[in-house]
Amino acid sequence: MPEFLPAITLWQPWATLVAEGLKPFEFRKWPAPARYVHRRIAIHAGARPTRKEEVRELLLRLHSLSFRETGLAREGSIKLLESVLSSPARLPLSSVLCTAILGEPVRDAALAERLGTSFVNDSDRGEHSNWGWPLAEIERLEPFVPARGAQGFWTWERSHA
Question: What is the pTM of this model?
């Protein structure tokens, strides 16, 4: 019997960072819709190939004194991202990687204060860090499930064999 889950598409390497439990917050310029909060959602890796320059920039930030500003688990993220630099094509694209429980969205200033920093954002898209969406109880899918994504939330049909 199929199960229908709300899904959100993330670019790589961020989708894999979530699937590995290294990215506890998804950052967006809008709060997650209330109807999805406290529900299991699917995390989809978009079709856009991993960009080495974004990986390098994220590694620089993780190696700096301001690593807390990324909101990422530092050591595990560094290890993963360094391996991605040598082989960016190793990250899956156009696939659902995991599911997670979406928590109550947190405003950027409150999240930064909680993490002991002046701001929090894990990318160079500053306009996308207005809200942090907590992601918990990650369940990795093995194997990953090929799927076509969309902008914003969309519905993913999960088949149970």
Answer: 0.94
